[in-house]
Amino acid sequence: MSLDTVKHATDTPDADQPWAELGLKEDEYARIREILGRRPTGAELAMYSVMWSEHCSYKSSKVHLKQFGDKAPENDAMLVGIGENAGVVDVGQGYAVTFKVESHNHPSYIEPYQGAATGVGGIVRDILAMGARPVAVVDPLRFGAADHPDTKRVLPGVVAGIGGYGNCLGLPNIGGEVVFDPCYQGNPLVNAGCIGVMKHEDIHLAQASGPGNKVILYGARTGGDGIGGVSVLASETFDATGPAKRPAVQVGDPFQEKLLIECTLEIFGEKLVAGIQDLGGAGLSCATSELASAGSGGMRVDLDTVPLRDATLSPEEILMSESQERMCAIVEPAKVARFLEICEKWDVIATVIGEVTEGERLEIFWHGEQIVDVPPRTVAHEGPVYHRPYARPEWQDALQADDAGKLPRPAGSAELREQVLKLVASPNQASKAWITDQYDRFVQGNTVLAQPEDAGMVRIDEKTNLGVAMATDGNGRYTKLDPYTGAQLALAESYRNVAASGARPLAVSDCLNFGSPEDPGVMWQFAEATRGLADACLKLGTPVTGGNVSLYNQTGDTAIHPTPVVAVLGVIDDVNRRTPIAFAEEGQLIYLLGDTKEEFGGSAWSQVIHDHLGGLPPAVDLDREKLLGEILISASRDGMIDAAHDLSDGGLVQAVVESCLRGGKGARLVVPDGLSAFTFLFSESAGRAIVSVPRSEELRFTDMCGARGLPVTRIGVVDGEEVEVQGEFTLPLAELKRAHEETIPALLV
Amino acid sequence: MARVVVDVMLKPEILDPQGQAVQRALPRLGFDGIADVRQGKRFELEVEGPVDEDALARIHKMAETFLANTVIEDFVVRVES
Amino acid sequence: MARVVVDVMLKPEILDPQGQAVQRALPRLGFDGIADVRQGKRFELEVEGPVDEDALARIHKMAETFLANTVIEDFVVRVES
Amino acid sequence: MTTRVGVVTFPGTLDDRDSLRAVRLAGAEPVSLWHRDKDLKQVDAVVLAGGFSYGDYLRAGAISRFSPVMETVIEQARAGMPVLGICNGFQILTESHLLPGAMLRNNHLHFICRDQKLRVENAETAWTADYEAGQEISVPLKNIDGRYVADERVLDELEAEGRVAFRYLDGNPNGSLRDIAGITNAEGNVVGLMPHPEHAVEPLIGTGRTDGLAFFTSVIKKLVTA
Ligand SMILES: Nc1ncnc2c1ncn2[C@@H]1O[C@H](COP(=O)(O)OP(=O)(O)O)[C@@H](O)[C@H]1O
Ligand SMILES: [Mg+2]
Description:
The complex is a heterotetramer, with 1 copy of chain A, 2 copies of chain B and 1 copy of chain D.
Chain A: H1 6-11, H2 26-36, H3 42-51, H4 54-57, H5 62-70, E1 78-80, E2 87-92, E3 95-103, H6 105-110, H7 112-129, E4 133-143, H8 149-169, E5 173-180, E6 189-199, E7 214-219, H9 229-233, H10 254-269, E8 275-278, H11 283-294, E9 298-302, H12 315-320, E10 326-331, H13 336-345, E11 350-357, E12 362-366, E13 369-374, H14 376-380, H15 395-401, H16 413-425, H17 433-436, E14 447-449, E15 456-459, E16 467-473, H18 476-481, H19 483-500, E17 504-513, H20 520-540, E18 544-550, E19 554-555, E20 558-559, E21 563-572, E22 589-593, H21 604-610, H22 622-637, E23 643-646, H23 651-663, E24 667-669, H24 677-682, E25 689-693, H25 698-708, E26 712-718, E27 722-725, E28 729-732, H26 733-748
Parallel strand pairs in A: 4-5, 9-12, 17-18, 24-27
Antiparallel strand pairs in A: 1-2, 2-3, 3-6, 4-6, 7-10, 7-11, 8-10, 9-11, 12-13, 14-15, 15-16, 16-21, 17-21, 19-20, 22-25, 22-26, 23-25, 24-26, 27-28
Helix pairs in contact in A: 5-20, 7-8, 7-10, 8-10, 10-13, 16-26, 19-20, 19-22
Chain B: E1 2-10, H1 17-28, E2 34-47, H2 53-67, E3 73-79
Antiparallel strand pairs in B: 1-2, 1-3
Chain D: E1 4-9, H1 16-26, E2 29-34, E3 45-48, H2 68-78, E4 83-86, H3 88-95, E5 102-104, E6 112-120, E7 136-143, E8 147-149, H4 152-160, E9 164-168, E10 180-184, E11 190-193, H5 213-225
Parallel strand pairs in D: 1-2, 1-3, 3-4, 4-11
Antiparallel strand pairs in D: 5-8, 6-7, 6-9, 9-10, 10-11
The structure holds adenosine-5'-diphosphate and magnesium ion.
Magnesium ion (MG) binds next to loops of chain A.
Binding site for Mg(2+) 2 (chain A): 126, 278
Enzyme class (chain A): ligase
InterPro entries (chain A): PRibForGlyAmidine_synth_PurL, PurL_linker, PurM-like_C_dom, PurM-like_C_sf, PurM-like_N, PurM-like_N_sf
């Protein structure tokens, strides 16, 4: 086939083009022709199709995501907001932190190990591209039913992939989630987040400015990986094989990425780059068009110079390739030599592939002939925007009317005891140590808290002990019952987890996992969830700094539960003041903070005991969350509490059991007046936490809560080797430990 | 008992970081003239009973569904003499 | 260019948990009659120039000092036809 | 004059900065060494840190073993310089034949990260003098290729000569023969172990224990009195 040059395209306006196969709609193709004033070349068509895909252009979600900016709370900490590779916040002492969560859902279903591994690789490069040293990763995960055979295939591969890649990069894994639900059968959710740290002056942006500056591609060679992956995989049908016979799966090389990190940080250290972008989805198409679009001029690229792993690749394929472990930098000519020298030191291949030009066009050449001549903004930032129709599903009312409060409750103490054991042993509530022990949480020597703590925490300055914390949460069951409230609950829980660790919540990233946007019901869930999240962020004062949307998570007509996963980043001035979850000191008093109501909709109890999902999720009170957070942070700062654990799915009893097992100490609990033992133990009312208070601090602590209007109830004492609910039952720690720890390994061997 | 060998290699178009690392190390060790290295897996199966067409078909199936992930890997089944 | 294959297997007396894990999984997947599975590595080398005795001797040396760790592994060098 | 302890960075080394920190906290001067340099910058001792040098491709430690820096490290180790190999460093030491045996995939096939109890069997090496023989310590363990194997003859010899330096307690985490977590050469200057003492040097970080610090104070003492 002869080369489809710009000239050839101009001369053959009526040539047939496979725009539909590439996932473009008729009107989109027409718009491309209009923008260019001619038909696109094959390379241009490839670029537009991939950049205008749902995955890259956010065309279905954009109109809703706008709220995160429109309703953003005043926040002096925000240094870089939505739109860059990741948001950046000021954490004091001259430090800035960048963080983000992304999805790699579908690839992880097809090839669990590589899909998950490259998910980690991708998010780490995003963080690196901001100028930061990556310091930790987190991995919120969702799988099908725990006992489904396919979960046995997918879960171990995903976990090994996340571990295999993250461990090899030397990034401590400090948190995440593992949730099982049949709704994720065939559509597991593999989200991965990363935190990076830099000094303010080191912030880098993805823009190509300064005509004459060189464009340097560095890292791995370009191969045929994942071609069509972005446009086809993340597009309408999952089983389409794409435009080329190339593999849709990328294979990661964490070793190469580790070199890329160290090499890039050294380059940053010598201030050698004017702009930088990682190569992720849509590869060079994305990097060149985004850099040029965000910059001041145009760009010219010679594709022949791109180092290839496979010499047979066509120019279109080179542009679309999603080969991993690559970065693209804009470098002043005088600094190129030093740049290349550092790359050589780290055994990283680096090549000048083009330069920034005076013009306003992105021009790409192949064998001396021009194959791309486009206005970069139209590719990268001015893609289509859909206002998809949305409508509250017909079944929503019936679902909400199916009140979980009406479910039969345990008849007596014996049954209550049995249900507690069943709950803590259920796959979603059981210990995830079998999984998290496959992740290095110690590397870099700065990990203060990691799993199974409420939030992960790392020290970022050894002299001052400044630290950052992160938690990720999401509850698809709550969100299915009420998407607006469910999204707010995800934020509230994550916020609460960070505060419980002693850190001050600062900012938010999110990964919005939903079904097909072409289903008006799903679109309604999406609209409600984003509205809920934006409203709640405004109220809590924690702006969304960036995130990711994953749509089409569905099989046939059946979508996953809407699953917004929310990551909250917090800061702590002195990590010595961090609060662990462990009840470690006999005789300390256990207090319950917050109000407990009859709230069982979407609860773990309703799922584990009755396999039920219905009613309304717990009510959200964001003022209360804020107050609870302030109390937890003050109490930690002033040394009033030795342990804190937030209450969420599984309710109070789950939290008490976890704190007891973590500390190796039992607890004697008294059911507060006015509550049934059942409600006390299993209710999932939000805005609550338990704390353990040294006797010497009791008055000071309760006075503080009283003065600030936070309900505080003394519910027991840390003591013995069993969990006792007075007048109801006792459960030896050893029995609880077995129940809690044996489930996951038994499911997966 | 007969031995059947299943060789599983990454498809040619798939990145093989291990093979690359090995290849890059060779010149440093004084071994020149190796243009490419690919690293794969070799499974040696001890098969009970006769290795007839039927048995081979079953092993083929096993390789396809379990020993190899055909999204990224090719495999070959051979009877070892 | 000629292809030389180096097969590296754990010595028989060394425990091979990977092979064992594969073998244990087989009956669950409906594959019976496999008495033992050992998992090893296969290297495919693309050799520039003629694969004569000299070249083979060098590859043998490479396998012995580098591709295999002879404390735990055995290897075989073969020219692929 | 302060003791200078070098920490080698290979491509893919991860725990080099942690080891440098541990050296500093122990009171010595940490010195970074680079895999491409034969020059050891006049250090008095060397730590081969943990990580995935060369991605652990081929075999853990197999490619690093042939780096320029290792030529000098091997030479100096033979001449008596204290060398500590932690995790990947231990793997490099066995691949270099400075220590006998080899490291294989864990018997359960998973990466495992946990707090690991050990018994110090030999408190006379350059790196363990600040422990008591028989002392029990806890330090993090994290690896996927941590199963120590050697043939029976070598194992018997190690036991007979008191060269098993550390043994796993409370459960063997990976199938290492005879519960061996670490060994020393006959002279006691070269020590390798899979667990990570450099992650157990500060009260707040990691497991919150400082049981690993004595590795680094031991070598300082040894060098000062030497
Ligand atoms: N996939 C995972 N990776 C890392 N840590 C995880 C993962 N899954 C769960 N964890 C950790 O296990 C602990 C318990 O998880 P979870 O019950 O979801 O916490 P919470 O209910 O407080 O949000 C937390 O410390 C969490 O970060
Ligand atoms: Mg929590």
